[in-house]
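Model: You mentioned two targets. I'll fold them one after the other.
Researcher: Yes, keep them separate.
Model: Target one:
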Amino acid sequence: MPPETKTVSPKALPPIRRSDRVRARVIRVMFPIVFGLRSLRREVEFATKKITRPHRISIPTRHGRIRALVYAPTPEDLAGLARQGRRPPVHLLIHGGGFIIRSAWQEGNVARYIASEQGTVVIVPDYDTTPKVRWPVAEEESYDTYRWILDNGADHGWDTSRVTIGGASAGSKIAMSVVALAIDDGGPTPIALTSAYGVADLSRPDEGRTSPLERPFISADLMRLVRNTYFLGIDLTDPGVSVALHPRLADFPPTLILTGELDAVRHEMNEFAANLIGLGVEVTHRQFLGVDHGFTHTGPVEIAREAILSIGDHLRRAHDSIR
């Protein structure tokens, strides 16, 4: 059975303003167009082996069933693992989108690389977003997906002793929250975590998010919209909201943190990396020069390649550590 929900009763929350609801819906509609124009698509595809198209599965959560995309390694790689008496590891990849966009497909280039080059099953959940839901629905649906993998993965032929998690942007925040929820529950945690241009502290004032760019991808206006929709009426200092404030960060698994020099949210993730290191967590932290938010998808190509290969290397080390 899914765990009990932590969701605040909608009756206890202020209503989202109509103008903010409309803006959020417009962003959701426009995202595929804007994302397609900004992305280099083929140029940021680094998988060297052709895998089959992802298939969809339905996963039960405390908020109802959600869909997820499953990217599988090549049949040859799966057969090779079987000959060794092994099963493929699993990576739970949480997509971004400012808690507004529903677009599991946007992580395709990263998912295909991990499935192709690491021989890993990649699951990308299509969690609910605002203005339909508010915190912590996306976090709880993603955590319930993680628990479902642990409880049911063996039936699908997956190695549930080698489950990792990661995400980009808002997906990074949700992935970190899944780790924190696993720690709070006293259950097994993912054996590795990856974060690309994430957000760790929603309570941070906008004055603390600066960029040399005149129009950075993550603007103060966008952050206000996120606070006025998904997090409206929520205590932003709650560790479930702002993972940087969680009291047991020392229990985090080996963590990869990737940031961009021009990204307005880089400061909090750089500080988060330093804090984890100070607590004794095994951290690999890389800041890429001259790039804003979303560089694993928009490039430049060489930086996207380096970042995605770093994710693969981090996961491989974690998977190889379990024998």
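Model: Target two:
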Amino acid sequence: MSLSAFVASLVIMLVGLAGTILPVLPGIVIIYFGYFLYGVLTSWRVYGAGTMVLWGAVTAATLVLDLVAPMLGARRFRSSILGMWGSLAGTLIGLILFGLPGLVAGTFVGAVVGELMARRSTLEALKCGKAALIGLLAGSLLKVVVGLIMVGAFVWRVAMH
């Protein structure tokens, strides 16, 4: 049962790893579910509550950072509060309505519209839109790195047991 539990959990985690790149899948959450599944299937012999709490906290923090990364990127380049909230609104609306292209376009457009509403010049608004996109990319990179670490730690922990 242990080998089949490992393979099943690893397949789920690899789907989750793909989800760190594809915005339609909640990648980090899926990877965390792989940890949970392996624990249940093996009666928690390899790891227990401490590991689940640690990776649960990492999962939650990654989700929050991924959501606010465009706002932080915009803020880093002195965006107004309207530009920051515009980038968040654009990110969510774009993703929900148009998937990956909407995620990128919505982040940029939301930040630009927010800055224009704050009466910033068009050039300043475009700079903040660019900064929001940089934040989005940084958040995406963080998600991929965290996903790789989670999967690598799982394989290492199970292999060493």
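Researcher: Noted. Anything on target two?
Model: The chain has one domain: 2-160.
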